[in-house]
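Open question from group meeting: does this chain pack into something compact, or does most of it stay loose? Before anyone orders reagents, we agreed to write out a predicted structure and look at it together. Recording both the input and the output here so the notebook holds the full record.
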Amino acid sequence: SRLTSLGQLELTWRSRVHFQPLLVRVLHKSRLRYYGKPDKKLDMPYQAYFEVADGSGMMSMVLWNSLCPEWYNSMKVGTVLLLEQYAIKTSYPFKTQPTPGDSQMKRFATIEISLNVRDPPTKISIIPEDMVRPEWELPEVKYRFTTRSELDALPNNHSCDVIGLVTFVGRAERARKREHGEDFWLYRWVHAIDGTSDQPFILELFATSQPDVFEHIHPMTYLVCTQMRVVRDITENPSRTIYLTTSNESQMFITGWHKGQPYIKDTKVKNFIRWIKTQCEADQMKKTVIGGYYPFPRPPNNFLRY
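Structure tokens returned:
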């Protein structure tokens, strides 16, 4: 009876210091960001963004500092949270925006929920799924799964989710974050097939905040990647150079991690599982490859054009 909603918060936040408790579901989760600097003395300079929603719409929520190691892994996509003693701040204008699975959902973009250890000390509770009541009207997590046969028609930078059987895993490679900086992104190339095309998904998977998944992507595992972005080279043959890359909100799941995830109810995921059951494991094993140098996108055919 004492709950407020995201819609009410947007209308009343300027006139309040203390806010009523909030009941929300996590729809998107960003990678963990470390913002430490040598001259700043912060014990745990971490930050993570979440997109949370209730019956009135969706809003960003920021987890700060020492709350990150305590709560980040527990707050999964689909988790229901009860938030008390949180702060409301004006939104940071330059953060990345995930593409919502439900295009009709209202987005509250002017403010964000801030969760801190103090000023005020936020109280976070996770509500088990079997205790979530229909009258709370919390939205379900929705996805935008794309099959390999549909991929060639998608525009550059389009956001989608994919599921496939891994047939190739490249070695982990590094790329500099900035030209002369000392920080690196870690990534690997992966191929996955879903039975809808002769061509595989070509996936550029950066190490997000899921090292336990990134390091254990092997051939023959069922791989789900969410919030992937389409990359296509318009100048070359578009279908030949199309691939998918991770975004700030991408999540990866492999065999052993799928149980209880919201996407298992999706129609295209069920179709993929039906197709997998018709395949001979030994035949697929013969086609798998691991490691080696994988130059992609490939250079032009002749030296002059290169």
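Observations to bring back to the group:
The chain has six helices and 15 strands.
The mean pLDDT is 91.
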